[in-house]
Amino acid sequence: MSVVVAPSILSADFTAIGDALQRIEQSGAQWVHLDVMDGHFVPNLTFGPKMVADIRARTKLPLDVHLMVERPEDLLDQYVEAGADFVTFHLEAAVHAHRLVQRVHAAGAGCGIAIVPSTPVTALEHLLEDLELILVMTVNPGFGGQALIPECVEKVRRLAQMRSQRRARFRLSADGGVNAETAAELRAAGIDVLVSGSTFFKSADPAQEVVQLQGQQIA
Ligand code: DX5
Ligand code: ZN
After folding, report:
1. Is the model's pTM score more than 0.90?
2. What is the pLDDT of residues 43-98, one digit of tens each?
3. How far, in Å, from the CA of 139 to the mean position of ligand 1?
4. Were 53 and a residue from 75, 82, 124, 198 both cysteine, which residue would form a disulfide, CB within 3.0 to 4.6 Å?
5. Structural domain includes residue 152
6. How far is 156 from 135, CA to CA, in rounded Å?
7. How far apart are CA 198 and CA 176, in angstroms?
8. Ligand 1 atom closest to Cα of 179?
9. CATH number (domain holding residue 62)
10. Which range marks the domain in which residue 76 is found?
């Protein structure tokens, strides 16, 4: 199974989101990654559930909503209702993470948990069987265009090992600083989903960018 590429519209022109979706669909990328930032959990602000609902109306691609917010318990349901296929919240923002996972499932979406670079993978140990997605932040969250922190690749490798030992079913996603070079390292570590913001939106040939991130050759 080839790696899923999930372009992040954070790096798109916010006055032309329709064009960004068209670019994603035409590139062959499989998911759309939506970065919700609240100006508190991270020092940046993006958009809310209406953007997710409007995008839902425009594409059939799975919507991968990444909540970089404090108090995710107050917001989760709105994003499921808006049409998210996966709702991912940060472990660092959740006291009762297991309860929130159950809430997302009851609302009808797949659930992901994200960890920032300073959070060890062992913090997720008790949740592995309950999740559809684990998102390893490979930069400090808040902005696109940062360089991947090399130590985070090892966290992906550890989580892939834990997954096979525990026979868990979650997909492993990496977010931040993904480019052709770092994608190769992440694939070797066992990644399933590569989020790509600036690399994808800066590319002159998005379709080629996708196959390159997947480690395939263009026919
Ligand atoms: C960063 C966001 C990422 C961001 C990645 O906080 O969570 O999804 O869009 O952007 P690049 O690929 O430019 O690092
Ligand atoms: Zn993200």
Report:
1. yes
2. 999 999 999 999 999 999 999 999 999 999 999 999 999 999 999 999 999 999 99
3. 8
4. 82
5. yes
6. 9
7. 9
8. 12
9. 3.20.20.70
10. 4-214
